[in-house]
Specification:
2 copies of one chain form a homodimer. The first copy, chain A, is α+β, with helices and mostly antiparallel strands and 118 residues long. Chain A contains 6 helices and 5 strands; from the N terminus they run ββααβααββαα. In chain A, strand 4 and strand 5 form a beta hairpin. The longest helix of chain A is centred in the C-terminal third of the chain and has 18 residues. At the A-B interface, helix 1, helix 2 and helix 6 of A face helix 1, helix 2 and helix 6 of B. The structure holds a DNA duplex (20 and 20 nucleotides).
Chain lengths: 118, 118
DNA sequence: CTGTATCCCATACGATACTG
DNA sequence: CAGTATCGTATGGGATACAG
């Protein structure tokens, strides 16, 4: 009988104690907001994303793209059936609802840099 | 000579490849946005924060509060010199610039729940 | 009441090599 | 070109006991 008293919020099979942590579950981690930031206004190929994010490893980029796809915020489109492959990533309609959030996050970081620069 | 070509952004001694990741460095992780969310409009004591976040452990709450304090977004005020202690946490002026970001994050999570609920 | 100290585990992430 | 496979490490965070 000793269940969790707190009513958890559920999204995509995961539970969160707060609406803020739900969002962080979707866009949190070291790279997901960066990916979303670059996809805000354009579709990008895998290799283009790598160029925009030179310090991420292939493995991590791949995993994070998959996570974002599973949460329904980005979509993956394959254009060729044989190598060399062409794959493009873009925001889904649901993912586009995150644009204000990503913009607020990027803007804040930008302002901090502006005001801290000597 | 083989230095990082990418110009990194620096804040509080940490380096970030992107303005979005800088913000995530400050508010990322499982609990920091939740803490900021609860401190958005009011000052709270340690025990009050624990009541608002029943699923976080003491250790983690303590560590995250310390991180937030080190980044200058919250301030810790002690009201007693002998036990029982009274300590209050609140946003700094700098921390208040995060309010729109935290609000955007919380709002998105809230809307997802609203629209997914059956 | 407000934390620290230990201990431990899960996961995130990196480095590198390799494949369809 | 667009990833996977494998391995290793670092860190975040939980459980619990205890201290100022």
């Amino acid at each position: 009988m000793k269940e969790k008293e707190t009513k958890m919020l559920t999204f995509k099979g995961k539970e969160y104690p707060c609406c803020a942590s739900l969002t962080m579950g979707v866009i949190g981690g070291k790279w997901k907001t960066v990916i979303l930031f670059h996809l805000t206004d354009k579709t990008l190929r895998y290799s283009e994303l790598r160029k925009e994010m030179p310090t991420v490893t292939e493995r991590t980029l791949s995993l994070q793209l998959k996570n974002l796809e599973e949460d329904g915020v980005i979509k993956r489109k394959v254009y060729t059936s044989k190598p060399p492959l062409k794959v493009e990533y873009s925001l889904t309609n649901f993912g586009k609802t995150l644009i204000p959030v990503v913009r607020a996050i990027a803007d804040w970081g930008h302002e901090v840099i502006e005001n801290n620069e000597v």
